Amino acid sequence: MTPGVFLQHLRREARGSRGRLAFFIGCLTAGVASVVAVAGFSEGLDSGIRSEAKTLLAADLTVRGRRPIPADVEAEIDRITGAERTAVREMLTVVAAESSGASEAEASEPTQAPGRSLLVELKSVDGYYPFYGELELEPAVGLAELLDEQSAIVAPEVLTRLQLEVGSQVRIGGQSFTIAGVVEREPDRITGAMSLGPRVLVSAAGLERADLEQYGSRVNYRMLVRLPAEREVEIEGIVEAIGALLDEDGRHRVESFTDAQPSLRRGLRRVGSYLALAALLSLLIGGLGVAQTVRAWLAGRMDAIAVLKCLGYRPREILWLYLGQTALLGVVGSLFGVGLGVALQSVVARMLAGALPVEHLEMWQPWAWSRGLLLGVGVALLASLPPLIAAMKVPPIRVLRRDADPLPPSRWALAGAAAALLASVVGLAAWQADSLWIGALFTGGLVLVAIVLGLAAWALARLASRPRERSRLWLRQGLAALDRPGASTVAGIVALGLGVLALLAMFLVEQGLSGELERDLPRDAPTAFLIDIQRDQWPGVEALLRDQNADQIDSVPMVMARIAAIDGRQAGELREEIENRSEGPRPGGDRRQAWTLRREQRLTYLDELPEDNAVISGELWSRPEVAEVSVEEEFATELGVTLGSVISLDIQGVVMDLTVTSLRRVDWSSFGINFFLVVEPGVLEAAPQTRVAAARMPEGREQQVQDALAASFPNVTMIRTREVLQRVAKMLTQLALGVRLLGGLTVLAGLAILAGAVSAGSIRRGAEVALLKTLGMTRRQVMASFATEYALIGLVSGVIGTVGGAVLAYFVLTRGMEVTWEQPIGWLVASVVATVALAVVSGLAASVAALRKRPIETLRSVTG
Amino acid sequence: METMTNPCIAIRRLTHRLPSGGRLLTILDGIDLEIARGESVAILGPSGSGKSTLLAMMAGLDRPTQGEILLDGEPIHTLSEDCLAMLRRRKVGFVFQNFQLLTNQTARENILLPLELAGATDAGRRADELLDQVGLADRGHHYPVQLSGGEQQRVALARAFAPKPSILLADEPTGNLDGATGERILALLADLRQREGTTVVMVTHDVSVADLSDRAVHLRDGRIERDQIRSSSPRLSAVPDPERAAG
Known about the structure:
The complex is a heterodimer of chains A (864) and B (247). Chain A is of the alpha+beta class and 864 residues long. Helix content of chain A is 55%, strand content 17%. Chain B has 247 residues and is α/β, with parallel strands linked by helices. Chain B has a six-stranded mixed β-sheet. Chain B has a four-stranded antiparallel β-sheet with strand order 2-1-4-5. In chain B, helix 4 (123-133) packs across helix 5 (149-161) and helix 5 packs parallel to helix 6. Classes of the chains: A alpha+beta (864), B alpha/beta (247). Chain A binds chain B through residues 1-2, 5, 8-9, 12-13, 15-17, 303-304, 307-317, 395-397, 399-401, 404, 407, 863-864, and chain B through 52, 55-56, 59, 61-62, 81-82, 85-86, 88-90, 94, 96, 98, 100-105, 109, 113-114, 116-119, 149, 159, 171, 176.
């Protein structure tokens, strides 16, 4: 047959099955639309969250340390074409109010009056700062306009505490600066760590003038880097390259925006896994819909195929004819799917503008579209392969004898098709999930469930075939229909069961994940921390907080100490050993360890651990004979201590030996007051200490609390964290909403496809309905008989699919996403009931037309 | 047994059994039959006598349990599905009781199909010519559902004769038609056969239809009960008036 003739036949053969082919296209459209929409949304969510994460860092990556950034690191950055960098220096210093008109000589001495000087976090920046996020200034002008060598921008707390206003003079490092404005919000201010004072911004030249950067001064050097967009994908390599340079230096750390806040990072990773799963499963459901449609379509073409064979069509030409049809329909359905996916994306993005971080969602995504197109056509061809191979075997003698058995299939053809099908499903799944292992596991699971479903369907058909002469007519008919020749009970149950599995798994994972994301929301987290509270001031401060309607008030004592020795080995000796190690097995870890040994540690003592702490080994305060300390697990690894280790702490000159008797895991995402080292009560009570407090203030009340504190407890510093909390909460809410939305869409599309798949199998029962009605069955009886049959199919598919879905969701949630599994018994029961209802309703809906017709119309068209 | 030289169809010791209810049912039982080129043969017999199965075997639509079938001297019972399809494409035309037109194709397209499969270069012209011959020149663009039973069977006849097959197999071609329409179809069949010189094998249980053939083979219980050869068949070889044949 020439290609021209083949194409002619292809075109002609497409006629007459419009309804069914429209459904075929519909299934594929829904499947591909969810793939494209999911790809688009994940891209949108990902880039939205990425941009928020960059905001938290104000850069793509930062290098920071206690020494100036090495020149070779700067050179490395400069080698990246298009990369920009800016230097930020931070230090703790005291600023003092300067009375107006004071002479230079008088002003050179900081004002000593209580409340007129303040410990601040000084930060020098230049005009490039920040690369991401917004620096909110009052007046709202550019940083470069406000900041010069002579000026400073301060946090509102500085004005309150020092009773100053914009235009006043402050002394920083002995030099006079004019307050040019107020900084309301900094993108990179506090990323979970506690601050020690309000912010004061000066320019780099201003910092030089203040001359604070002297030998021994504790300056934090930070280099912010913005990469050109096209190099962003290489960020891990760049971080690694810089890390390699820093390994030799040992005093700096490099961090990228991908190391953002822990609960967000976790959330992102989980959402990423969920989206991959949703796309994979929605494609599976689309494939099931297509397979069922093709099956039903070919069942309707059996007579035509037999005629074609009589006229001289070869079996392989039949295969090509229908495969060509399928491919054409696949392309059309996938194109519609791409269009619908893009439309969905844009409609939902518009509907949820502001709620989802998709304002900058890129609509032009040719990669996602071609992926959708390829997956759609691939799935259509794969799903059609088994019924197409069966179509090749339609016996031509069917033209004379309609009940003729199909020709025996060639074993090689069957084995080849099965192998091709399996390999392709593994390939498609691996492509979609971005992992060959997941692809293979997914396919293995599907095959296993399909076998269980097939066996159950076979058993059901056998059971149903047993004579039940005493039962009611409609029940007997319904049961018998499951075992009638040509009944697609097995295919129907396998398809519906797999569909239920996919839908339920998606639903349960979505429930678990969005629940977990919502649980991660720092709802009760403190919105401010209070530091430097003297012991005797706490009752007064607490009363003040209560007066201001603050709640979730928490306070613990805080003692500052340095690590003097571990297990008898002096910290200096340990540090030297680490620093001299030229090439350690874990240089990054060594660097951190050296830094930990050097820096000042904050300790507390508690009788009971806060709720966000869990002892993971050892027992809290279990050895009365020694002074005990409980260590956070990661910090213990950093220090190289374990249960039984002795940490010697130098507390203001007094060395104390503390034995590690428990290790703790801390949920840092709670934003509560937490310490790496917690000492048992009765050990540190006499040590010099202050208190640190956290409280949740009513929104907008912070300034009043700040003013009240400044009036009554001028030494107490309040650090606001609402801004960060709100940002983290917003991102988590957006993630949860995104997951709920996508989950909802894919589940809805899946339900529609499954309903269609059930209908596809039942739509050809017009002749049966007509015959039953001719023999005297009422419509009600016919419906009852069909309902019995569909309910049984729904029940078997529902039970097995539900169990399979729950198992899949359990593994995805607990192993893949590390989310707590909550017994979803209610949902499981609902899933089985819903499957039965879906099967009955869609099965009956497909038979409605036949039930309405007068029997003679159907019988005439069947025989004529 | 007397044998023909170069028979168009030769069937030897043809037996066909089918499993039914746990036992084997013999449909055809040792049939020996030879049909000469250009001969018209009617196969008669009551329901279940094996008429349609015998016809299916001749076209390679089904495979015998035993025995052999030769078309133009070529054994077909050993051919693969593909070769059988090619054989039907080249040599065999079909007419069925229930017409078996492709419902999603127009009358003209139904006729075009075997021509295109055979790679005919003048498929369109030949289809139009055949439509004209069966009196449906102006109905070529109609779908089967828009045609009467008689018209559908005329399209089926045109389709069967389109690639000029050497053998035409007809299974109760008038079974679904009223008497007058059936007669017109048979007249048309005779006319086309005359023009194309085709060997015709027709299954029927209607003796009056069989009377129009050169030969009548009577089957009973899968065996040839009687083989009647008429020296001068009066009608199937006669040329009826085409105007009168248009049903």
